[in-house]
Structures are given as C-alpha cells and as structure tokens.
Amino acid sequence: MKLFDLMRDIPFSGNLENLEIGQVTSDSRQITPGCLFVCIAGARFDGHTAARQALKEGAAAVVCQKDLGLERQLLVEDSREAYGILCSHFYGDPSQKLKLIGVTGTNGKTTCTYLMKHILEAAGKKVGLIGTIHNEIGEMELPAKNTTPDPGELHVLFMRMVQAGCEYVVMETSSHALDQKRLAGCRFAVGIFTNLTQDHLDYHGTMENYYQAKKKLFDLSDTAVVNIDDEYGRRLVQELSCPVKTFSVHTDQADYTAKDIRPAVDHNRFTMVGNARIERVNFPMPGEFSVANAMAAGVAALALGLDMQTVCRNLSSCPGIPGRTEVLPTGTDFTVIRDYAHTPDGLEKVLPALKFFVQKRLMVLFGCAGERDPSKRIHMAQAVVKYADYIILTSDNPRREDPVKIIEDALPGLEGKSVPYEVIPDRYTAIEWALAHAEAGDLLLLAGKGHEDYQVLDYGTIHFDEREVVMRLLAQQRKNGK
C-alpha cells in the first residue's frame, strides 16, 4: 500500500515520496525491508530508540512523535493513535464493514460479550467475538493473548471476520487498551458500561484515571448503554455527548428495569420492563449481578434494532458462560462452583448470591494475583470473610512475586474473625484439601481463576484447568475410598 494512502486522516510533517509499504509494525523485532515502523514509548521500551536501527535494517520510513532528526521520519502528534489508524488502513479498514459492540467495566465484560453473541446468533446473525477467554469467528475459536489485542492483531481479526461473512463483532475493551489507544480507527455502534470498582490501580494509579480510561470508549461509540445502579455509571450518563440507554435492577428511573427477580442456585427468572413493553426472562446464571449482565446485553441488542420479544427469548435460551458461576459436574453430595471473581467487588457480588442457597457451609477457596494492585488484597479477604463459613487462602497467579508475601498481604482481612481458615499456598494442594474436607450440603467456591486453564508462576506458565483438577482429584479420592 502507498504511504500517503496509509497516512490519510493522520496529520504529519515530513517530506517523503509516496513509497510502497509492505508492512506496518511497532515491534522492533519484526522490522522487514519496506515496512513502516511506528515508534511507541512504552513502560519498558521506547520504540524511538530503535528508529535509526529500523531504517538501517530496511524500513521504508519511521513514524514518531519525537523529532529524531532522521531523513525518513514522519512526525505525528500521537504515535499510539497513529498506529491504530495505520493498521486499520493497511488491512482495508475492515471494522468499517462491521457493526462493533464494545463492553467496558471492571466486572461482567466477558459475560456480556458471550450473551450478546448468543442473542445475535439466535436471531440469525453471524458474529465475531474478541475477549478474555478466546476470540471467535463464527464457530471457529482462536487463542487470545490480551483482552483487547494490539492494533496489528486486532485489524487482522476484523479482516478475517469480514472474509468469514460476519456482520457484528462483540468485544471486550479493557481500560489498558483504551488508555493506550489500541482502538484508534474503530467506531462502535454500541458501547456498554457495566460497572467500575477497584482494580488495575497498579497501572492507572487512581480511580479517577481508571474511570477516565473507561470513558474513552464512548468517544468512539454511536450509542451508550449504561448501568445506573453503579455510581460511576450515573456520573457517566451526565458526562456523555452520545445518545444513552440506561438499565437497572433497582430503579424505575432507568430506560429498562429488571422486575420481579426470582433467584435460584443455577438461574434467575425476571421481567424486563421498558419502552411500554414487558417480557419475561429465564436466565441460566445465578446472582443479581447476572441479571445486570443480562440487562446490559439485552438493552444493547435493543439499541441495535432487535425487538424485545426476540431479545428476551434469546436470553432465556443462552447456555452458561465458562468459568462464570459454573457448576462443575462432580457427582458428589456437595456442590463445586468455579468463578472468575478476582476483585473485592466481584467477590461481594458472587458470594451473597451463592450464600442464599447453601444448605450447610459456604467454603471459599481464593487467592490474590501477583504483580497486580496489592492494595486490594486485604479488601478481597474482607469480602470473603463476610460470607464464608470456611476459607482456604491460596495462590492465584503469583507471577514473579513471592506467593507467601501475597498471602501475608491478604491475611489481616481474615484475622480476628470467627471464620476458620486454612493457608495453603499451592493451589493444587489447596483444592485437594478442600475437596477432602467438603461435607454433604456444602458449597465449595473456587474463586479467581474461572475459565483460565493456566497458572502463572515465577518460572513460567503451567497448564492448570480447575475443571480438570477437580475431576482428577475426585477420581483419586474415590479410588482411595474417600
């Protein structure tokens, strides 16, 4: 593609001929002759330091936001934003041929994207999905490295989705991606806001910065769908310039409200009310937070033009979401559920929902992530101790941080309370202990890992699928006569 075609819509300075460009990259390890190298200043590496070498290795030109005094440089105001737009242009602006639905918030993003995909597919649409668990093009699954991919990978995905005949793409939009402008060059038909609670402060520093990063999705959206049960959602409604549709499970002040909620251990029955319409939903996930997620997806589908009867029928036919309050088929007289709750707010939502249905004890196995906001560890423990009858404190993804130190950060939230607890740093051993000590009528929640089939330790990433772990350990216990 010609250089000036790539650079359209991007103000720049620099006198270059209209070169043929064979690749666009921001990765200095992927320099090829004839490529356009975009210099991006990251947390650990500044691409500007590699610009001169990129030209020596055959790059046609470099795009930078610092004047490097190079002969073949294009100077732009924001190279991150330019990179997203360049990637979009290089692959033929595929997102413009798709209807994008973006979901942002601390909790509920994955569930909302899966629900949106199901609602649309059940209505006869072909849908792509980009998210935490994996990416999907129709029924084909692809691995996901990041919740929201790098622009180069993102626009390749969009291109493949267009080629596959997709009409819609539902995607999680992380605060990191929004802050780093990975979505530059995209336009969303609908942006969804689920909630905002403490998370990622190791990156954003303050809740205000975190909020402002999430808010950037709606600068790229034609319509916003916002949860006004959340205090940041109520603020967001006041600050947005695009059209807004609101939803709630508590107040009639929303455009759409969930009424007559009838919870059960594995589902919720409720009524969606709004726009002079009433439709019933039998949703296959427990907890009030699940009703909020269903409302988010349902209202977004309405904003896309589907009718309420279709939306509610399709919500009712939705299967469960992997790793989201997922009941594991153990064949035991106690219940085991795995869930991705890994923040104080996530635990505060899932634990009371499960506690309501526990026959005997609510046993909670949880850990805190390493190399992530350490200030939330004590708050996670405080959330668990409010509802649990027995606690097993273990590891999540410790990464390169000392697992014992992570546990010590959380322990003050448990100490001085009457709830008994065990500290077992190795997660496999902790699950083994929990299964061996669970009794008839107990509910054991494995919190934090959810859908993840790996664990990140100091020496690398290992396969660790809790569904498989539970099945293996129970089989061993039965063999040993437990």
**Largest beta-sheet characterization:** 11 strands, mixed
Low-confidence parts = none
The percent range for helix content is 25-40%
In total, the number of strands is 23
User: Looking across the biggest beta sheet, what order are the strands in?
Assistant: 8-7-6-9-5-10-11-12-13-14-15
Distance between the termini: 66 Å
- Inertia-based shape: globular
Overall pLDDT score: 93
- Put simply, the count of helices is 16
Category from helices, strands and their pairing? alpha/beta
Q: What is the CA-based Rg, rounded?
A: 24 Å
The fraction of residues in strands falls at 15-25%
Oligomer: single chain
Outline the structure in words.
The chain has 482 residues and is α/β, with parallel strands linked by helices. It contains 16 helices and 23 strands. Strands 8-7-6-9-5-10-11-12-13-14-15 form an eleven-stranded mixed β-sheet, with helices on both faces. A six-stranded mixed β-sheet has the order 16-17-21-18-19-20, sandwiched between helices. A four-stranded parallel β-sheet has the order 1-2-3-4. Helix 4 (109-122) crosses helix 11 (308-316) and helix 13 packs across helix 14. It starts with a helix and ends with a helix.
